[in-house]
Amino acid sequence: MRSLPLDKTIVTTTQPKVVLLAGGFGTRLAEETETKPKPMVEIGGHPILWHIMKHYGFHGFNEFVVALGYKGEAIKKFFVDYQNLHGDLTIDLVRGHMEREDQVHEPWVVHLVQTGHDVMTGGRIRRLRSQLEQQTFMVTYGDGVSNVNLQELLAYHRAHKRLATVTAVRPPARFGGIEFDGDFVSRFIEKSQIGEGWINGGFLVFEPGVFDYLDGDYNSLESDALERLAADRQLVAFRHEGFWQCMDTVRDKQFLERLWSDGHPPWRVWR
User: Fold this and answer.
1) Are strands 164-169 and 204-206 parallel, antiparallel or unpaired?
2) Contact by Cβ (8 Å): 144, 246
3) What was the pLDDT predicted at 13?
4) Which alpha helices (DSSP H) does 145-261 contain, by range?
5) Is the pLDDT of residue 9 over 90?
6) Are 229 and 122 in contact (CB under 8 A)?
7) 12-261 — its CATH code?
8) FRET partner for 102 with CA separation of 20 to 30 A, picked from 75, 204, 215, 250?
């Protein structure tokens, strides 16, 4: 077991950078990901990556490092065109002049970094070391939404003075339920966060010392680095009892679309 000086594990910073893992193939959502990377699959007309960034931005985290891989050019194009696509334009075709009106100004700084095509999650973070090794940083996946309080998560991480914190969530029940009144069905219950046990919901916080646990491109953040951190008692869990949902399948996408269409999606903490 490694012996780490706990007073040197935490690097204080006012606003950690946020790493968005956006390089996977999304094979279980192949109907959508044949033509685009999974983080660009839309919910309510916006890529799920946008929803995640809006969540972080609401809590004051506005500098992002997007770890690109599969079809990363689509994510680059989205940000290059962001203002033109989300504001009004006046185009003078005769003079070749364009004016932007009612521009959308997100307070974001976005670093788009190609981290390889076949690289695993731990390897992608390792390739970002030069941008992250001087400060606390946050990490999440590009396919899950939640209403976790990210400032509380960061405060919890700093209070425990360990190298890593993972947000633990209750997985959604796979199916809805039935309530009975004697032999009669009284009502159907929609699936909710009532699954058994806890799982890694993403929304992690790391100190630069985690790079000692990332060995190469084929290192898995989940099954390699986090397990080794846990064995060294350098991983703590922030339990989140609220909403969390990943988008692994078409059914998950449809579920999130229904929540958005209802007008009060539980992950929309911003206004």
Assistant:
1) antiparallel
2) yes
3) 46
4) 150-160, 227-231, 250-261
5) no
6) no
7) 3.90.550.10
8) 75
